[in-house]
């Protein structure tokens, strides 16, 4: 009866209102579900409610395949299938097999007389079209997912390689700076388009100081600091946890100055933890719209762990090296300084030891002078040793180092204009970095040793420690050498005084007696006696030699070069000539002179002294110029505008009694 009704239905061309799928929906859905379970275990393991939902969506789409509004049902069905694939519940092959399974389900559930009606045929053709559409879209989904997986694998491999390189850097070197630079460079390379910066906390923990940076916005502001309070990096340091901000400009946790000055869009900071305590922060920043995620924080935390290990190892290594170096320095300096009491040898030994340890383009030893002022006792500029200078101004930083009994470093531009050291050496170059350590004699500061560099930021705390080590030994050696020098000077002065007394009491007094005797003889002779001329000549010679004896007495007592530099002794000599003659006398000389041999300095001093004596005797209070020029050699010129003399006559008489110019 059922078959006959179906035949009549087909032959008459009439249509019922409902689609066969609608009339047999429950049976078809059950058959389709059973077929799906048989196709793959994945269908049995997935949510049965989700499976029923997909089957109902498919049957709705089949029933409405060629009807108005059917496309909407089709789109819902296909979207559900794509979601199933994207969610990795089923493979594309399993979904396609499941879709083909609906045809078997229709054969099982729909009576034969309704199986080949136009609606059913249209539904089957539609299902085949949908399978093609789904296959194309599913292949794109799978391809994209594979690309994502491949990209993730590449990133994962890159990250593993970066971590391996960082680990190798940490284990292969104990040089802290090199290791930190390697870590920051790898961090900047790993995430494209970012800048990595590593900051360490200062001694009081109130600021984070930039150690190194790398990446697209890498800067050279090493040594610059940011406050721990009111900054995102400071928040990371204080909390000991990663901090992510993907909108720095409006982040209320950042300071106002950061809002105004920073162009950074995103920032990620992770703490550097040593034995659970934060010592610094590793940060990456980006100008792009790419947000930082928790996975980035986990990766940077691994980098930070390596950095923390490097910091701890580097610091321990530096401490050990510093202790070893200090012991070596003490041994070397003590050995050299204990073997001599010569001040210049002590100064050179101190300078040589300093240049072995740190940059020292220029080097100074400043000591308190006998007058209470400050003397530049030893001056070196780019290998050239200069003569000492007395009564120089002392920068406040040096005075503070002596008051606090500790070594300091500072930059020359920080010096107040009224407290800068007098210039010496190359006047065209400006010292940029200075390290200074006090020379302590018990509780008293006797001076300062200072290493100086023509480059900024040349000295660190390690340099201060080494400089202090040398200063502690040098102070004792300098004081011993100065005491010896003073004792030697007293002995020399005593000997000079003895010689001066002997010359005064013997030669000078004898010459005075000779003059008196000759004058008495001359007075007893007749006025027209031819002996008067010879006696007057003898009296003149005796008086000249008496003047020379008195000058020798004066020079023996003064000994100007014993305690003054050549320039200072020449200035004193010129001033003495000016006072004795009331004549205009001018000294033209450089600010500083290279240190000369003692014999050469004495010869130059005696040359100027004899020249001024001649001008005083024969120049009739004329104007005198003394010029000192320093080049490859030292040139000294003394000239005046007096009446001059007969050079030819001098040449004839010099061997007999013109000893001044002849001696010069």
Task: Give an overview in words.
Strand 12 (433-441) and strand 13 (444-453) form a beta hairpin. Helices cover 58% and strands 16% of the residues. Helix 5 runs antiparallel to helix 6. With 664 residues, it is an alpha+beta fold. The chain contains 21 helices and 16 strands. It has helices at 2-12, 20-23, 25-39, 41-45, 48-63, 70-86, 92-109, 112-115, 118-172, 176-190, 232-239, 256-261, 294-337, 343-357, 396-404, 461-524, 531-558, 566-581, 598-618, 647-657, 659-663; strands at residues 194-201, 207-215, 225-227, 243-245, 266-274, 277-286, 362-368, 374-381, 384-386, 389-392, 408-411, 433-441, 444-453, 585-588, 624-630, 634-640.
- Fraction in beta strands: 15-25%
What is the count of DSSP helices, taking H or I runs of 4+ residues? 21
- Classify the secondary structure makeup into a structural class: alpha+beta
Q: In which range does the helix fraction lie? A: 55-70%
Q: Spans of 5+ residues with little confidence (pLDDT < 50)? A: 1-16
Radius of gyration: 50 Å
- End-to-end separation in angstroms reads 155 Å
Mean pLDDT comes to 78
Biggest sheet statistics:
7 strands, antiparallel
Any idea what the shape is? rod-shaped
Count of strand segments? 16
How are the SSEs placed, and which strands pair?
Elements: H1 2-12, H2 20-23, H3 25-39, H4 41-45, H5 48-63, H6 70-86, H7 92-109, H8 112-115, H9 118-172, H10 176-190, E1 194-201, E2 207-215, E3 225-227, H11 232-239, E4 243-245, H12 256-261, E5 266-274, E6 277-286, H13 294-337, H14 343-357, E7 362-368, E8 374-381, E9 384-386, E10 389-392, H15 396-404, E11 408-411, E12 433-441, E13 444-453, H16 461-524, H17 531-558, H18 566-581, E14 585-588, H19 598-618, E15 624-630, E16 634-640, H20 647-657, H21 659-663
Parallel strand pairs: 14-15
Antiparallel strand pairs: 1-2, 1-6, 2-3, 4-5, 5-6, 7-8, 7-13, 8-9, 8-10, 11-12, 12-13, 15-16
């Amino acid at each position: 009866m059922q078959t006959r009704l179906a035949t009549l239905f087909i032959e008459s061309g009439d249509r019922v209102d409902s689609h066969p799928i609608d009339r047999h929906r429950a049976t078809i859905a059950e058959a389709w579900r059973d077929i799906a379970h048989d196709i793959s275990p994945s269908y049995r393991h997935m949510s049965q409610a989700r499976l029923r939902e997909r089957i109902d969506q498919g049957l709705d789409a089949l029933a409405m395949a060629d009807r108005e509004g059917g496309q909407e049902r089709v789109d819902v069905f296909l979207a559900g299938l794509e979601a199933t694939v994207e969610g990795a519940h089923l493979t594309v092959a399993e979904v396609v097999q499941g879709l083909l399974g609906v045809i078997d389900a229709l054969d099982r559930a729909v009576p034969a007389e309704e199986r080949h009606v136009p609606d059913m045929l249209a539904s089957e053709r539609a299902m085949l079209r949908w399978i093609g559409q789904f296959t194309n879209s599913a292949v794109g989904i799978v391809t994209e997912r594979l690309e994502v997986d491949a990209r993730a694998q590449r990133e994962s491999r890159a990250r593993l390689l970066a971590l391996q390189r960082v680990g190798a850097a940490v284990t292969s070197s104990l040089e802290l700076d090199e290791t930190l630079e390697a870590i920051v460079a790898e961090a900047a390379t790993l995430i494209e388009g970012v800048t990595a910066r590593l900051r360490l906390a200062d001694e009081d923990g109130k600021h984070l100081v930039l150690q190194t940076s790398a990446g697209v916005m890498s800067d050279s502001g090493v040594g610059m600091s940011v406050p721990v309070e009111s900054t995102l990096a400071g928040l990371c340091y204080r909390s000991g946890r990663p901090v992510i901000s993907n909108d720095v400009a409006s982040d209320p946790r950042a300071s106002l100055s950061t809002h105004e000055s920073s162009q950074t869009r995103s920032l990620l900071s992770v703490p550097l933890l040593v034995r659970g305590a934060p010592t610094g922060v590793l940060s990456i920043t980006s100008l792009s719209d790419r947000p930082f995620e928790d996975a980035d924080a986990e990766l940077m935390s691994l980098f930070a762990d390596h950095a923390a290990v490097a910091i701890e190892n580097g610091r321990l290594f530096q401490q050990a090296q510093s202790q070893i170096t200090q012991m070596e320095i003490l041994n070397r300096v003590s050995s050299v300084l204990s073997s001599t009491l010569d001040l210049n040898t002590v100064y050179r030994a101190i300078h040589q030891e300093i240049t072995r340890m740190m940059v020292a383009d220029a080097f100074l030893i400043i000591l308190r002078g006998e007058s209470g002022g400050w003397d530049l006792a030893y001056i070196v500029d780019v290998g050239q040793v200069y003569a000492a200078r007395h009564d120089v101004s002392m920068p406040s930083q040096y005075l503070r180092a002596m008051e606090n009994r500790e070594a300091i470093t500072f930059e020359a531009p920080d010096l107040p204009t009224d407290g800068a050291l007098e210039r010496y050496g190359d006047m065209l170059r400006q010292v940029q970095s200075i390290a200074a350590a006090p020379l302590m004699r018990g509780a008293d500061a006797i001076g300062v040793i200072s290493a100086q560099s023509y480059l900024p930021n040349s000295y660190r705390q390690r340099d201060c420690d080494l400089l202090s080590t040398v200063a502690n030994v040098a102070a004792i050696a300098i004081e011993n050498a100065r005491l010896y020098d003073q004792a030697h000077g007293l002995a020399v002065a005593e000997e000079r005084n003895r010689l001066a007394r002997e010359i005064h009491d013997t030669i000078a007094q004898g010459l005075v007696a000779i003059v008196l005797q000759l004058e008495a003889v001359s007075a007893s002779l007749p006025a027209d006696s031819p002996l008067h001329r010879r006696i007057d000549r003898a009296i003149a010679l005796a008086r000249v030699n008496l003047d020379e004896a008195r000058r020798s007495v004066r020079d023996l007592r003064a000994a100007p070069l014993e305690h003054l530099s050549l320039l200072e002794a020449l200035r004193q000599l010129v001033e003495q000539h000016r006072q004795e003659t009331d004549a205009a006398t001018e000294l033209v000389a450089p600010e500083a002179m290279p240190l000369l041999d003692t014999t050469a300095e004495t010869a130059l001093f005696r040359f100027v002294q004899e020249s001024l004596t001649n001008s005083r005797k024969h120049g009739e209070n004329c104007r005198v110029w003394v010029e000192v020029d320093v080049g490859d050699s030292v040139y000294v010129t003394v000239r005046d505008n007096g009446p001059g003399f007969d050079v030819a006559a001098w040449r004839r008489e010099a061997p007999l009694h013109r000893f001044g110019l002849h001696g010069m």
